[in-house]
Amino acid sequence: MSLSGFRTFAWATLIYMLFVIVWGAFVRATGSGAGCGDHWPLCNGQVIPRAPTAETLIEISHRLTSGLALVVVVILFFMARRVSAKKSALRSAAGWSLGFVLVEALIGAGLVLFELVAHNASLKRVFSMSAHLLNTFALLGALCLVVHRADASIQHRKFNSSDLDVLKLPIVTALLLSLTGMTGAIAALGDTLYSAFGSMPLQAYLDNELPLLLRLRLVHPVVAIATAAFVVWYQGQVAVRFREASMTQLTWLVSGLTLLEIGLGFVNVYLMAPVWMQLVHLGVGVSLWISFMHQSFLAHSKSLIK
Fold this sequence. Notes:
Layout: H1 3-29, H2 54-83, H3 89-113, H4 123-149, H5 163-166, H6 168-193, H7 202-206, H8 212-215, H9 219-241, H10 245-270, H11 275-301
Helix pairs in contact: 1-2, 1-4, 1-11, 2-3, 3-4, 4-6, 4-11, 6-9, 6-11, 9-10, 10-11
């Protein structure tokens, strides 16, 4: 296989991973995570359950799509070994992708085996979801790096310790986006578990009259707005400094997705977080992360960040 063909496959893998992530959110939003009980990898103790419920079918489909994602990343890893030299940055990125997808599978299995699904509202589930989100972002970042390293038109250079000063702003941005994703996942969990509460006055949150997960919903909008302001400011810095067409396009894309995500957040709150809106909100958020990762790697390789 040629390097360009490999890059096409890597892009396809990244896009498919986006679908798997959104479908996983659908499982959580519909309360179908316990559709196979606390059995894994079997479903209710069976390979093919008899007379499955809708929740069981949703959970099985998620396991199948997630399992296929694991297989695809394994294939990507071995393909990278064929199209690149030993100890190359491309092989390293593919190795990180494989490692993160394996951790992703273990976290998914742990959620089921420890019954941190469906209507579980414990702090263990909150922490596990945060860890799940961080690993998902790391996996997407590694896949973005695979795509980037497979671009033969770019003169790549390895990361080194001197890059830390150069990458301060991108690292801060990545941390803020990750924190926004984590608080968003927690807010979405609260919306799912306590949807019957509907809209509540602010005073109810401040008086500790609501469950903890509901009160934590207030954190996400604050973090999201602060992060959006920083991201847009940072993109302005990039636009002023760098004049290349590719960077300009990515700057507009990242800024546009950031503002769109904030708008969708307000719509999500106004509509009281219906399932379809949660999925759209998540899909745009993941697309923003992918776009930002691509911009950061491109800037580093071309030594654009000074």
